[in-house]
Amino acid sequence: MHEKLMEEVVGPERVRSAIEAVGRNAGAPGIDGMTTKELEGHLVRHWAVIRDKLLKGTYVPSPVRRVEIPKPDGGRRTLGIPTVQDRLVQHLLVQAMTPIFDPG
Hints:
Elements: H1 2-9, H2 12-25, H3 39-56, E1 65-70, E2 76-81, H4 84-101
Helix pairs in contact: 2-4
């Protein structure tokens, strides 16, 4: 079951949809400095390796970038900003797992 699910996770339709979702959400770069506009070019060069790691279960997300933002009450709150690549992987997993855990 695990292998079949991961094959679905990395399917071309899901990848295209995840790229679009990450692009729409934009957001700040993670620790690697990559922007959402650079994602597609990055995937052209590295997708085969990323896909292989996902299928083998060896993919390891990068550390998140920590940023403090002001709170309305005057305090500060820490945000963790994942890399754009990790956001893509998160979207791939959510697309595959949502129908399983929330079938509607």
